[in-house]
């Protein structure tokens, strides 16, 4: 379909405004970092993603409270064993996270709702694995550090437990 010059001129400002709007949104999103609890928690999450992708189990364990307990009956040691098994099975791990909500309670407690897309390569018939999970993380700030005290999770779209 051939457009006439008048129609093209009407569309040009629209086409230029979309990238301009996207640029404004990106610049606003990249403003000066906050120094409050939400910023600290986002940093904690970034640290956890980096540690997982690097398969640094010790770093992840340092982020979990010794008093960790969840509805599945898992404690800190059990979570550590799950991480150990996952890291041994996977050759390479990639995570994509989307934080839905960070609820701060006072200065020392928080709940984080997020979705995590997990993909990795492994030595199997297919050679890779990919899943998506929803998580609800309960954090407590102890001695200046945020620690995971409980978690619920489930496959994306299913009930968290």
Description:
Strands 1-2-3-4 form a four-stranded antiparallel β-sheet. The protein has four helices and four strands, in the order ααααββββ. The N terminus is likely disordered. The chain has a single domain, classed as Nuclear Transport Factor 2, Chain: A. It is an alpha+beta fold. The radius of gyration is 21 Å and the shape is globular.
Features:
disordered N terminus, alpha+beta, four-stranded antiparallel β-sheet, single chain, 161 residues, Nuclear Transport Factor 2, Chain: A, 35% strand, globular
Please, what is the average pLDDT? 84
Count of alpha/pi helices: 4
* Beta-strand percent range: 25-35%
> In this structure, how is the largest beta sheet organized?
4 strands, antiparallel
Helicity, as a percent range: 25-40%
Structural class: alpha+beta
Number of domains: 1
Oligomer, anyone?
single chain
SSE order in H/E notation?
HHHHEEEE
The CATH topology is given as Nuclear Transport Factor 2, Chain: A
SS elements, strand count: 4
Low-confidence stretches: 1-32
What is the CATH architecture descriptor?
Roll
How are the strands ordered across the major sheet? 1-2-3-4
